Structures are given as C-alpha cells and as structure tokens.
Amino acid sequence: MFDNFSKSLVVVWMPFFYGAATRLPFIYYVIHLDMYFGLSWVNIGLCVAAYQGARVVTSALSLYIPRISHFLGTCLGLAGYITVLLCNKDSIRPFVIGTAIVGFSETLSSMQKYAKEIFKNDPDWTKGQMMLKYQYASVMIGVVFAFSIGGFVYQKYKINGVAVYGIIVEGGELLALILFFLLEKKHEQAKNTDATTEIEEASATTGTEKEEHQKRDLEEHAHVSFRTSLAKTAHTTYATSDIGPTWINWLICLSFGIEALTIGFNLSVGPIFILQTFKKDTGIIGVLFAVGAASGSFVAIVVTCTSFGNKLMGRIALPPFDICFAMCGIGVGVLIAAIPNFPGHVVGLIILMCFNDLGATLMTELQASITTASSYSTLAPAGQVVRRSLNVVTALTGPVLYGIIPRLPYYIAGGITLAWTIMIFVLFKIRTKQTVTELSTKTGLSKREIKSGWSFATREVIRLTEFKIGKCDSLIGKQEHDNDCNNHKTWMDSELVEPHVGYKKVLVTGGAGFIGSHVAEDLLARGDDVVIIDEINDYYDIRIKESNLQMLKDTYPEEGRVSIYKGDICDRELMEHIFAVEKLRWVCHMAARAGVRPSIQDPFIYIHSNINATTQLMELSHKYGVENFVFASSSSVYGGSKATFFSEDEVVDRPVSPYAASKKTCELLAYTYHHLYQLNVTGLRFFTVYGPRGRPDMAPSKFIDLVTRGKSIQQYGDGTSSRDYTYISDIVDGVLRSIDRCHKYEIFNLGKGSGTTLNKFISMVQKGVGRKAVIEILPDQPGDVPYTCADVAKAKHMLGYNAQVTFEEGIRRTAAWYKKCYGSGSSNSTVVEKKTESKEIKNKT
Q1: End-to-end CA distance of the chain
Q2: Is residue 204 part of a domain?
Q3: What amino acid positions are annotated as catalytic residues?
C-alpha cells in the first residue's frame, strides 16, 4: 500500500522535523526565563511543566486518534512559535503561553504507530523493528540539528531568531504530514479501484517471497542457531496475533519514564547549571548539547543498526539485558556530570546522552519485538505518556532542587536510575528462567541448549507458537534433510489456473446448513443458479435450516434460480434423478456430519454421512461428466500437530477423532477418483468457521447465545488453547474461488492465518455482547486439538484468497446479527428459549 516515499516521510522526514522542533525550547526557555525575566526557581519549574504537560496531552490523544492528534499537535506547535515571534518581548505571559503551546507538537507516538502498521505484515519480521530504529535515529539527528544551531541563533537573534527557526522546522513537519496523508489516501483509492488485480499480485508476491525466505533459511539451516530460527518463527506469528500486552510490556513503558528522568533534569536545569557554575555563554551551551546529542545518535545508530554494533553489543549483553547496560550507563553518566569542573561535566554529559539515546532505541526495539501490532497502538503512546509525565515531574522539581543544591537533581536522577536498573535486571532474570523452562518443555531440549538471549520473548509468544522438532520442521536439523524439504511446496512452481467466467448451475449439498446456505446465497447473488440437496437432519434445530432455505427462496423467487431437494445423499435413486434432470456440471459438496466430540460417541453415522455420501457424489460426478468437484474437508485432519502453521504439505495420517478420520478418508477418495477418472477435485480444509446463521453447537454462536442470556459457558482447559477462527464471508470467498478454478487435484487451507486463544475469544464475546460471561472451567476434552492455525500461503498463491475480517470485527458482526434475530422481543427469541429448555430437560433426565 505504501511506496518508498511515503515510508521515508514516516521514517525520516517527519521524525527529523519533530526532533528539531521539540528540542528548540530547551535551548532558550529556561535561560530566557531566568536571565531576561528573572523568575524564581519555583516559577521557572511551573513554566517548564506547562510545556511538558502539553506534550503529555498530545501523547495521550494519540492512543485514540493518532492522525488527528498528529495534525492538530503540529498545527498548534506552529501556532506556538508564531505566538512567540509576534508577542511583546517584554511580556512574560504570551511568551510562556506560546512556548507551552509548542509542547503540543509531541507527535512521536503517532509516527511510531504508522511505522508499526506499515511493516507489521512484512515477511521479514525484523524490518519493522529496524524501521522503528531508523525512525528514532532520524529524531536524534533532528535533535542534533536543533542543538547545534539553536544556541547560536538565540545568542545572535534572541527570541525572534529562535521563533523563526521553529516556524521553519515545524512547517516542514506539517508539510511532510500533509503529503503522507494525501499519498495514503491516493494509495487507498488505487487499491480499491483495482482490488482484484492487487490481491492476485500480492498473493503471487507473497508466495514468491515466502519461497525465497524458505529457500534461504534452508541454505543456512546448518549454520543458524536454534535461538535465532525460533525467534523468527515466533515473531512472524506473534506480530499479527490477538495476544494482549503482558506485565513485561508495561515494565518497558515505565522504563521509558526512568530513562527520561535524567535527561529531563539535565535539559531543565542543565543550561542554567553551565551558565552559572561554569560561566559559559549560550552559544557554547548549544554546541555542548549538540556534541552530546550527536555522540548519542552516533552510538545508538552504530550499535543498533550495524552488524558490527550488534555483534559488539551481543558480546556485552544480550536482550533485554542490553537495556540494563544502557540504563547503568545513564546513571553513571549523570553522576559524573555532577563533578564540579567543566571537563568532568562535559564528559558526564556526553556519556549520559550516549547511553540515553542507546537506551531509548533499545527499549523501542524491545517493545516492538514483544508487542503485537494491535497492542503496540496502545503501548507506544503509553510509553511516551509515561516519559512526558516524568518530564513534567522533572520540570517542577528540577529547578526547586537546583535552588537547594545545584547538583542535587543529578544525584537524585542517578540514584533512581541505578536502583531501577537493579530492579529490572532481577525481573528480566526471572522472566528468562520462566521462558527457558517453557521452551525446554515445548521442544524437549535441555535448558543448557536454549540460549539465555531468548529471554526477550514473552512466554505468551511461545504459547501461541507451538514448535515441532522433526524432519524438515526441526530448527536444529541436519544438512541432508534439506533436499527433502526442498521438495515441499511444489505448488509454488505450478501454473496458475485461470478462473471460469460465466454462468453456472451448481449443486450445493448441505445448502440448508451454515456454510452451504451462505455459499448458495453468494452464488445466486452473482447470477448463478443453485440446486440444493439436504436431508434436514436434527443434528441441530431443523427450524434454523428451514429458515435458511426459506430465505433463499424468498430472495430469489424466480423459477429455476433455487431448486431444493430434501433427502439423503446416500440415496442412489434420488441422486441419479437429480444429476440426470438438473444436468449438473459443477458440484460444491458442503454436506457433512460435523463435530469432533459427537463422532467419538457415534462414529458409524460419520462413516455414513461423510465417507459413503462423498463416495456416492464422486461416483455420480465422474459418471455425468462434472467439470469441477469442490468439497469441504476440515482442519481437524491435522490432529495433534505441533507445527507453527498447519500446511497442506504436512503428513496427516494420524487423526485423533472419527470425524477427522472421515474427512481424511474423503481427501484420499478424492485423489483416487482424480487418478482413475481425471475428475477435477479440490478439497478445502476449513478452520473454525463462524458468523451469522452459524451452527448453534459451535463455540462462537453458543457463547454469544449463552452470554447474552446470562447462562454459564463451559471452558475446556486453562484457556490457552488456540483456534484460527475464520469469518464466514472469507470462507465463502475461498469456496467460490475454488469452484471457478478447475484444479486437477488440490487441497487448500482456508483460514484467517492467525490464532486466537480461548481466553481472548471469551473476552471478545463479552465485548461484542456487552455482558460479563459466567465461566465454568472443565478439563480438556479427548479428541480436541490444542492449537489450529492455517498456513494460507498456498490458497493465496493459487486462488487469490485473502481473509479480510478480523476476529474482533467478526464477533461484533455475529453478536449484532444475534441481537437482531434472537434479541428480546424478536419473533425468534422463543425458538432459542424452547431449544435451551429442551436441552436442559434432556440433561436432567
């Protein structure tokens, strides 16, 4: 969506102008208040606090309205500098108000959110972290620019010169922001205009990039450490998952504040300290701060953005202990700056600013690496709010402490920083031990084999991403396995099948059910005719199925649009009649007996409804010359697989329930009919489908129903199990794409491509319904798989499939549909009540 120029605006230009604009006041504000207006230390502290408080406001607003906050903040910053330029130079009030308004230009949080959003889906998960580091480097370069020129400008042109300087840099940021918004809108319009082409190109590119990454990983397989490979796997999954922030995320937010404590004291009282203690002029102050900022920028960029720097830091301390190293340097630097001679103060100041910029960059990188894109939209501004709030504290207390003992702010800042460093070191050690223990349990490796550097990853990442140690999935494999692995993913080299365009009459089995009725509805909506066969069994309330059929007939009453047959697919005579009379050439087989747990209780009905019925349909399809046969399989075929993503290339010969076994059998039969009769067959492995008209026995529909009515819901296990919940419209899109493409024989995963834990799922249901759930916790059920997540790369590449609906949005839509159909006062509400009452009576009996 974003071209290189748009990205440069977010990563380079806006951060540069922001850094220059927000650091200018530190050159002249305190000095002017003291030397020109002669304010007391308490009043100076209040004035500086007003400026810092304005920065807090903008950072807080970016939590909710980042773009509006960014635009208004930049405009206000420009207005503040204009106020300073035009005001009466002998009047303190407009000067203080104008400078305080400049504080609203604190817009870094918004820019960080743009960068995280732009790069969150990049195949190279490290790119987003690198861009955030480059972004902060641009801020630091802007700071150097402000410090290096601002002091001399103030010395020569006083406040007017600084104000003009501020107007130029603030205007530059506003121009860059407007350009970014315009380009963003332009790209979005272009995307909407040619959506189909873009999806196909993006799918092909995604497949190519993934192939290149896998090939590169395999070539380096023997040389890459276990920790590094595991990190790549974890963060690729974690970036777009639904996992919320943990205590370690909030700890980093607080650490941003402590990191800002020393620099806040230094910038609020440092200029006066140099003027009064060492008798230096403002030009020298600007140069000194510029040298410190330049040194900090250089150290941060070299250490975090170059291979040499990364290796050097790796020898000193691995993440997150590199933050402890930087924080320790900050504490030592500020204490050295308290030395009562100018050379010592200069050395301390440079050490302080070097480690300060390094610490801020490392914390930005760590927070980005252990935070999902959705959580980062909260945590990034939260970190800045903490920083600016501490700046308010330093602004209020710094001048007061300076008035007591000039070096007291330095002593306090250094002591607090070193104490905080010790505390986070201990907490990081605890987290490391927990993470290594869980990794050892997941992988079967000893704790000694797992490097301590893995401590930066939260345990929630590991719980989300199950790791499989085995041939081709092993992260510590042997080189001889590479050839076998390279034989996988042959679909990447296959020629893409062009979609059939034009009218079709499609047999939709199970057309009265959840997925089948939606497929039939979309086929009819695009102009195709459908023939539905459904036995309308009592697996769940038949009134729901009859309502689905009635909806289709009422919506498309024209003769021939919807033909409905009620009966068993295994009835040979009935099916022969349908194929002969309707002259079918397209089959979409959605009918099946569903449910993992019921299949354990009565496996024979699954053999009849799934295996026998599918065999019947394939036999008739080859007999009557069907052009394309698409059928529903299930993610249950993956059984207890521990792979990070379930891929179609995975061997699935160990199903853990009769239902899964029946679906795998159907896939084998499909290949047999393709091999014997050249029948074009496509099997679709659905991943936990939900949405309006959903089966009432499925968790999304059942939980929404129970929570709405204040009934208890049953949670099996501890809530860490995960499912790839996929909204019905995305599934139907994949089904129609499969119908239109006559593949010889293919199996595709259709899912969202990211997992949602049961705990998160329940939380989203509560939010969608607007009511607290009553939860009954039960043991894990036999036959249930702990984790499902689809690798949809093949479907993206060969079908152009791309799931669009997030889980939160899907639950919101489903809950809204439920309230409309079954809410209080609805004509359907009695159906729900009677159905529930009958189940309760049956259970009591």
Answers
A1: 59
A2: no
A3: 659
